[in-house]
Fold these 2 entries.
Entry 1:
Amino acid sequence: MTSKLPWRGAVALVLLTAPWLLLLSYGIEQLTQQTQFLSPWLNYPGLAEMIEQTVVVGITVMLVATIVVLSSQPLRSSSGWLVQVIALPHLAFAIGLLWLFAPYGWLWRLVPEAWHSSVFDRQQLLSFIIILLAKEIPFLWLMGQRTLAQMPWRRWLLVGQSLGYSRQRSWWLLVMPELLRRMRLPLMIVLVYSLSVVDVALIAAAQTPPPLAVQVLQWQLDAQPASQQFAAYGALTLLLLAVVAALAVFLQERLIRAVVLPHLGNFALRVPWQALVSVIGLAAAFAIAAQSIAVGWFYPELWPTSWSVERWQQELSQLLPLFVQSAGIAAVVASASLIWVVLLLEWRRRHGVFGLSGWLLLPLLVPQLTLLLAWQELFAAFTSGGLPWRYALALIMVQIPFSAAYVYLILAPLEQRFEQRYLTTMQSFGYGFWRSWWLTKRSLLQQPLLLAWVFAALVSMAQYLPIVLFGGGRWLTLTSELVAVSSGANSQLIAIYAVSQWLLALLFLLVLAWPQQAVEGEQQ
Amino acid sequence: MRVWLLGMMLSVQQVYFHAWGGSDEVNQYVRWAQQQLAQQDIELVHVKVADISETVTLLLRENQQQQPSSAVDLLWLNGENFHALKAAGALRGELSQAVANSALLDPTLGWQNDFGIATDDYELPWGVGQFHLFIRNSPTSTSMTPAQFLTLAQSKPGRLSYPKPPEFHGTTFLKLLLLELNQHNAALYQPPQAQQQELLLAPLWAYLDQLHPLLWRGGKEFPVSAAQQQQLLANGVLDNAVSFNPSELFNAQRAQRLPAGIAPLLIGERAITNSHYLAVPKAAANSEGAVKVINFMLSEAAQQRKQAADGWGDTAVIRFQQSANQRDLFPSQPEPHVGWVQLLEQQWLERYQQ
Amino acid sequence: MSTTQLRLSAAQLQLAGQQVNLPELSLGCGEILAVIGPSGCGKSSWLRWLLGDQQSHMQVNGRIELSGTDISTWPIEQRGIGIVWQDFLLVPHLSVQENLRLALPKALRSQSRQAQQQVIFERLQQVELGDLAQQPVTALSGGQRARIALLRALINEPRLVLLDEPFAALDSQLRQRIRQWTFATLAQTATSAIIVSHDSADFPAGCSQLHWPQGANYD
């Protein structure tokens, strides 16, 4: 990076803003087209309840997750096992949990009838919330740990104790307010994810009426002009809810700081969260794995008629190329996202660019389908009947914003704290900027860089809609196949694809075991 | 990638076939077709989708932007998805001229209308579906009146359900009840007139008002699809499911996806019958390849294999040379006029999703 | 010791609403310029400007001439100016030897690892730090760090080395020793140096001195 940055800056600006200008033009086109549909939309049966459900899910997930995450021990302990639960793909996790715990499920068959309850049933708001919490809390723990690692909280606790407060009280009064402030973004992302998730909602949430995001997708897939217009209004409502969600996180933070924290005293939640969450995660994975080799497993039998890997063998010739293709796409997307974010972060350092967080995190705060349809116009001309590499390029480009957002989330706070004079020193030895970057920053930030890469890869491999809308059938992944077979009734086949998807996620996790260079002291 | 490299080397032409990928039997059948077509230097690529509307949305958008060339060569569809594509002028016409085997089609099967809309040669039938129920520990008869079904629901409260309309199995269930409860009133085969609407729909809503409290979750919640309802049946949550494929139950039991002790059941004496189709987008990059695939799919060998009991078991749409291969269908029940569908869906939502 | 190594035109610094006017300066080969003034008035920023590090919060008008060439617009890596920071900034996850290896001059970078190690070891021996070669830098004492930091800057054979409060992090006893060692080493290698400090005791006798001028508000 030399002093001549303007044209690079311009390229970066165009790349950052173009997707949103497209969205804007799409939005205006959709909204101004036919306003006669507004009133029928407002009278659509169950609309109020859809919005209400969505809000209830969002608020509950936010409140409970905040309380559990910020007040529990895993925040202050090691994180190896957390990532493994996070890596379990959402859909597989939800299928596994429901198959285990819902009425007539595997574990349900074990417990005495007197204990049977339908608290955790399929297509029920509460189950949906529980599944989201079980999946999102580990993510927030991980984010919390990384945030804490950047704060001298142990010193703050000592200060608190030297002033005569107990350790726990000092935690609430000194550490928590700052931690809450720094956790805003991850909380917003979890909240917006809860508002807009579709695949999990389809099997776990109530469907009469469904949460708004599910209905938006159903409208979008219905070719009638009215439905298309309903979908546009619905997507806009989701966008609005996302904005409200961001405000809600602020509001919650202020409330907790002003009202809750001062009165917590020595209170501490002593629940073995770590054990609980790992057990649930592993149980879900195990349940799915068992189902993938089970033949004839009907209520009320505790075990299937037989176990067989025959179906796996049959499917292997399909699975292997998919496995390679999914891994390849995810690796390319993750690498490109990482490079893109690193470039932007160095650009920001040099020129003090404002609002980078906003631009980069926006893809997580806008309903994906709306965004993709807006982008599709740009790529359609490029891919139209073209060679497979064109589809691959389009597919990778549209995935980058989603993966890059997570890369930014993980990397940016640490990068911001990085002592850039390490680079300057290396440059003074005669190394170019990027060589210096490689020699110092890359190795000093190796863990966050790897974690960011892994997250980006996990996000990419779980994408469904970009594959359908931009892959043109030339590029398929385990996830696109999983979603396709999930629309059928063959639970063994569904389990086989879910397990394969999970195995791929675990493969990416191995990257984190990359030989780590010890980093101590000096970085403060 | 593999597909692409292979294609480059052998100058094989790929046909990108978008089709629902939720059924193992269908997927296996497409794999068989792939092997057969490879001998004609055609590589059939099955692009599995969870819902063909995803492809239809894509095609409509491409069509709106006047894309000269589409990523989709061939798709499997029917009903509303066909209506939308046909109305948008996004499909290749005069298919039967290009597909020699279309001469084999059995004209008595009623495939000339797809959910009440004329196909006009913009799609060709691939198979025939007949709506029926699966029922656990069924009573001895193979058919029931709506009243008997209500009695059955009373005898096993919370154990029966149907897919939530506007999912098309769910809507078909409503159509069937509408026909049965009105003794197949001739007005139902005509566009709905304002004065009859209320009269003819009233018995249906009265019936459902009685039925719903006896259903799964008190009729406040419904399965989202026929496939999901089948999973609930397999898991023991429900005692019934619905299907359009007369061989599906047999297949599922053979593959041990559904337990024994479940039997097919008709509501009324006849089954609502409709076809599912193959169509080629107007802008398909490999339109000629797609037509060759359709021709193969309508060949005797392909139709027979499709109908085979140990495979997909989907009813053939052609007349076989040897009539022994022809399979018996349930007696077929024509669809009510398409105008009723929207009324049913709209009013169902207004009544039961508020 | 008389050829002019560094020539600086009169310069204006603008930072944080302050403007500082610096006189013309020049420095001979092997000479040391001491810059003295209170903390927080732009001395360190000025050093980084000399080094070639662009900083968005400061603007400087002025010309830098090193060995007769105008280098004002050159990037850091081409200037051949070394720096020792107040907090030393040794790369924390590397050993002493690896830190020094990174700083080897370009000619040596293509040599075999053994040849490089030989050079590094010799340099460490010269300053009696040979037994530290394998140590991780995090295990070093403050004085050791200070010496390795200077050695790292010098091993690169810069035409000029900048020292930014190099003794500030050391306690007073150690300070005296490291100071002597530093100036001895600079003299030994005949390297020109600019040293910035708020403490006049940090400067060797007889070096040229610049008292950092008072800034004037220019808003």
Entry 2:
Amino acid sequence: MTDYWSMDAALAEETLVPTKFKYGALGVASVLEPGSVRNDVEAGAKVEMPLWLATQLTRRGMTTFSLPEIYHERYRRKLNAGAECINLKGRAPYFYDVGNKCNEFLQDLTLSAFLSRTYATRYRELVSKGLSTVSGEAMLELQSKLSLEELAVFEAGRDSVSRAEMWSRGARPRRAAVYLPIRKRASAGREEEQQREARQRTNK
Amino acid sequence: MSALAARARDLLKELKSYSSDTLSPYNEELVRLTFSEIDEHNAQTEAIVSEMRRRQQEGEEPQQVDEVTATTMCLHYECIKRNKRLLLIYMNERMQRLRDMRWTQRALPETQKARCCQSEIQFYNDYSRVLSTYMSRAEGVGMDLTLDTKPPKDMAVTVRGLKDAGEVVLSYGRATILTGTTISIPAEEAEPLIRDGTVELVEWDDGYGRNKQ
């Protein structure tokens, strides 16, 4: 397991998935099914459990699980129609991680195609809107829609844009507080103006 | 039985809600509750095992473990493993952040120190001592490695005073910093002055479109 120490990977696995018990379990019903009067989970019972438990039990052949609702046909149609409009942060903050992890067990080819198509559409939107200078409000609106994986891509993109800008101005990335050559830019503008005036004079 | 590793999950969520250069207050209560959750799972597993032993001793046929019992035991086992993993991630992440603080801020700020538990403070002090020993002239490399993450191009930097700080004592003597005065001082001594806002770094052009810095 490569992502054993990753906080995000661990939190992604907290997503609930609908699971079906093959044989049942003793004395754990109060946890798995809140509000249940019985003590044991029966064979064939359907419960919602976190992905980390579902994968481990399914690996041993004790349960089977199916996809969370967000990957169902209804949402797939919505996402295919306009992937960039759907707010993933609220519904499924770990949309891609969870999808891929489920797919390790379910081997659903349409799901992987669906995931990559969704990402491709949303990525285009993310780059075209997020990395050019837009107003703070539009940026916040975009950020509030991204899933956490997309947000990481988004922040890396913004960071690299600002670094590239700094490089083209010829500065070394130092501490942010140090970097404020406002006066220089003003004087550069003045120089340009002077040059333009000089050119106009020679044209006359 | 309590919910499936929900407390350990809350621990991680709490830590995640703080930005990556600050710590959340060490939540001793939740850590303790997570431990007791693990104990509970362990106790239930042991109860199942002793029940089976008892039946065996009573002279019943050594039977196969039925699937329901196996599922229950696996469920407890996975919960224990999950709790362990979440706790380890929690500790490791906090340790990482403490280490970063030593490198970027040189000392543990009081506000962050109040949020650490006793052994974390112990870890920080030990780590700080080891790093200082490594950077000391007598036993180590004799350089302050936390100053620059990239090698500096010049030993001295040019700074401009932002406020009247008066006379400061530098390694080569005294210098007076007034608003607007520009002086050249050793890079490692400029760093603390820049950080508290007494001076700003002057980026100047060396004629090739690149700053000398």
